[in-house]
Automatic annotation (TrEMBL):
This is Succinate-semialdehyde dehydrogenase. One of its GO terms (biological process) is tricarboxylic acid cycle. It comes from Tsukamurella pseudospumae. Residues 4-449 form the Aldehyde dehydrogenase domain. It holds the Pfam family Aldedh. The lineage of its organism: Bacteria, Bacillati, Actinomycetota, Actinomycetes, Mycobacteriales. Belongs to the aldehyde dehydrogenase family.
Amino acid sequence: MLTAIDPSTGEQIREVPAAGPVEIETTLERAESAFVDWRRTGFTERARLLRAVGAELRRGVEDYAYVMTEEMGKPITEARGEVIKAAWAAEHYAEHGEQYLAAESVESDATSSYVQYLPLGPVLGVLPWNAPFWLAFRFCAPALMAGNTAVMKHDPHVPGCAAAIAGAFRAVGAPDGVFASLPAATPDVAGVIRDRRIRAVSFTGSDRAGAAVAAVAASEIKPAVLELGGSDPSIVLADADIEAAAETLALSRIINAGQSCIAAKRIIVERPVHDEFVEALRARLAALRMGDPRHDDTQVGPIARADLRENLHRQVTETVTAGGTCLLGGTVPDGPGFYYPPTLLTGVRPGMAACAEETFGPVAAVMAAVDAEHAVDLANATPYGLAASVWTDVARGEAMARELEAGQVSVNGIVKTDPRLPSGGIKRSGYGRELGRAGIHEFVNAQQVWVGPKRD
């Protein structure tokens, strides 16, 4: 059974049977059968479906946002924003997919030679719970626009979200099998990846689970895109706008109660402005309102599960025991639900839990750097390489971006995902790219066509 727990109360809200062998077989067979026709549709028809789904998300934003809030605790204002962002992803690929996949002429000894981008077949998306609508459309919108069919295996803790997403496609009359939700249990995922009908895999989640998915996909010679965890650094140098940096990094650290792969996790501050920045950040974190995620005035909701809160608190406790200082928060509140307060740690050094591990919660870990070179060294001293930000003079920040081991870097701004721009990591944060032109090119056959006769 797939069980959803309301993280604001700790109470079970729904239970859904996991897909058995018959449902798995039927879903994959329909995805393969639908691909036969869907691959031959034009971009206009594919775009029509994506625009219709985008419009449906916008129409039903309140209902879609609510199921997200009750299953994983995202504050309702953020949940509404996520639904609208998912609609934007669908609309973006409807608008630009044909351009992204236009055939490219290449000079050779042929009378004509070019590269054309053809669909692969059914693509499996294995998705996490922390952004259930956005990550679903980040996966399926480019896949569908490219002419693939999409099979979504969502996280077992958000079965209502998975059903709602599939329902949005049904509501607009999507052809049977073009998009499907497969509520498979985790132990069955490897078998689905190995199935001959699945041609490629997109995975978002932890590096441990990503390694397992990658191993199975590689053993079957199937392409995969992995967007994994991060211990994202944000560097604040002495010439930064301290107030702007503190404002933005506080927001980055507490969006979705800090449960985001691209949230600012290790904040590395040059010594001359360290104390000033820490005080500015502390004041902003202290002013945040934690509470029921259904209320519009809530800024920090609960952690999604009890085990996740326990692990987060362990990281905080171990960091303090190792010599870090907790200036704010750091205690598990009494009462129902899985709440954890905005927490500020200073004196954090390499090797401490809040630095060495990914912290998935509203915990900001501040490290001191002697200078810019030291800050970059600290930023890169991690097995992860998902995202980073730099707060300094623009030209200097752009130069530093080239030294940072990360898949995306923001200079004087928040790290975020955008349908127009590629997103992904390096090192243990994964490989491949989602979004933008690069994202839609991950799951296509870049077919070379040579047309004779040969030219002299």
